[in-house]
Amino acid sequence: MGLVLLLDANLVWAAPPNDNATAAVTIDVAQIMEWLADFTAIDLPDITTQTSASTGSGTATLYTNGDVSITANNTAAAQLKLGTDPNQTLVTSYKLTDDGGADDAGGTGGTDEGSYTVHSLFLKDSAAYDIIHAAGDGAVVIELHVEAKNEDGDVADVGTYGATQTLTAAWG
User: Fold this and answer.
1) Cα–Cα distance between 13 and 77 in angstroms, integer?
2) pTM (2 decimals)?
3) Residues 145-165: pLDDT tens digits?
4) Sheet (strand 68-72) strand order
5) The pLDDT of residue 84
6) Which segments of 32-125 does DSSP mark as H helices, in order?
7) C-beta neighbour count of 115 within 10 angstroms
8) Domains, the chain, ranges and CATH?
9) CA end-to-end span of the chain, whole Å?
10) Rounded Cα distance, 44 and 163, in Å
């Protein structure tokens, strides 16, 4: 005697439906303002006549997610001088430009400076270089331009002159 059991296909065991759980995730991004690195080295061409001016520039990237103001070192360290002799100097002037801002359809940046300013007055006090942050653009390439020339009616001594310009970014 045999027992035959027939099962209907609709009676097959089914897994329970999926059940989801969610997790709310939050994070705050702090104010960020930092230079990626120092400016690229600026090696000016030689001054070859009393009236010639030598110019060059270097760049540095500034990361920021807010408005900042850039000021400069206005001390003798920013003036080109021969070795350690404070009496052997060149007229040293600077200006800033950038890759965004007012001159580039609204990216993060400022308004490029059109003319050089002597080191002792460059970005001094209320003359800071203002960077305006644009949403979605958290980096700006700053270009530091340098001009060196002899004093009017004088010629500097032969040699290699050097200076260190320090730019400081602060919340604007």
Assistant:
1) 84
2) 0.85
3) 999 999 999 999 999 999 999
4) 129-131, 68-72, 167-171
5) 84
6) none
7) 7
8) 32-38+52-171 (2.60.40)
9) 96
10) 12
